[in-house]
Amino acid sequence: MWRYCCLALLWPLFAFEHNNNDLYSVRLDPSRIDASKVFLLIDKSDYRLYIYEDVTLLKIYKVVFGNNDKSDKFVQGDRRTPDGTFHILSKRYDGRWSRFMLLDYPNEEARRKFQDRMANGLIPRGADIGGGIGIHGVEYATGIRDYYVDRRINWTLGCISLKNGDINELYDVVKVGTPVVIRP
Prior knowledge:
Blueprint: H1 2-25, E1 38-43, E2 48-53, E3 56-62, E4 84-94, E5 98-103, H2 108-119, E6 134-136, H3 147-150, E7 160-161, H4 164-173, E8 179-183
Parallel strand pairs: 1-8, 6-7
Antiparallel strand pairs: 1-2, 2-3, 4-5, 4-8, 5-6
């Protein structure tokens, strides 16, 4: 009897884990998703991109970043991925990374943080905030493959990289203007 009570109490945890695992393999059907209600949450600490439609989690993707330092981007060339709330500024097919979705980095929030850090001496005068941060696939031409994402090998200059099949699927669901929240 005690064994069944414990199992009943633990069942929601197993069910959640099972459902979470399903969210890595589910195929998204863009015709069944209201793109105006979609937003992306990128969690740098767990190397995941979560796609939501309103309050419903649709799918989880594995991702990698610029380097192992998960702190906020400070300057161009630091290979860090910025923290904050951004939007998809543009989308394009890309010969290098399969698909590329440009973020509106630097936005006002990023510029304010940059100026505050410069005023506090954390960034040298004359430093550049950088730009060109986006979400894209892997770079096959240089030998970077999907297994980089599976093994959490950070390789970008500050962008978010997915497997090419994953970026192709995500690209078809996300529209210009989609909110993207990146957290440490």
